[in-house]
Design a protein that fits this description.
The chain is 36% helix and 34% strand. Strands 1, 2, 3, 4, 5, 6, 7 and 8 form an eight-stranded mixed beta sheet that branches.
Length: 176
């Protein structure tokens, strides 16, 4: 899905995913700025590529965090892509010698989509309660809200288990 397919502000249902890295601040104290930039460029090329290859939008990064989304009908593909970003991204970080993992949080619902920013350089972004809910989910690795879980096929649901309270779904192999 191309972000350019949305040319005017609109509201649509989306699977929204946030990701950020553990121990990132500690790592930034030990590495030069250009080396850090090179590391994060390579990491987001990997994880953003997984999202885009699955039909999603890799919307933005800030430091070690990223925001990505999938249209409502692509929930299974989106959840599987986020699982891949976690497993492949974590493996890539380990291969670089980093003791860091991604924390991934997913929520589903209506978002406002459009282009925002300085007049000369507007960028596609998403806003709304769904985005905020995804950002604030508790996770120690990979978590999704019940709204996401209810959108999944029975086969994809088998990859997760219920965690309470509050109700979230975490990767079946994850300890909590």
């Amino acid at each position: 899905m191309s972000q350019h397919a949305i040319s005017t502000p609109t509201e649509i249902d989306m699977l929204v995913g946030f990701s950020d890295l553990t121990l990132y601040n500690r790592y930034t104290q030990k590495i030069g700025n250009l080396d850090l930039l090179a590391l994060m460029t390579a990491y987001f090329e990997l994880t953003g590529g997984i999202i885009e290859d699955a039909g999603g939008l890799f919307i933005k990064t800030i430091g070690d965090a990223s925001l990505a989304a999938f249209r409502g009908g692509d929930t299974d593909a989106g959840v599987n892509a986020f699982l891949r970003t976690k497993s492949e991204g974590d493996a890539w970080l380990r291969a670089q010698g980093l003791n860091s993992v991604a924390i991934v949080k997913l929520h589903f619902g209506a978002v406002a989509c459009g282009y925002v920013g300085a007049p000369s350089e507007k960028r596609f972004d998403i806003y709304g309660k769904t985005v905020n809910t995804a950002a604030l989910l508790e996770s120690k690795g990979f978590a999704m809200s019940p709204q996401v879980f209810r959108k999944l096929s029975p086969e994809t649901r088998k990859l997760f288990k219920k965690h309470t309270p509050p109700v979230t779904y975490i990767a079946a192999g994850e300890r909590h």
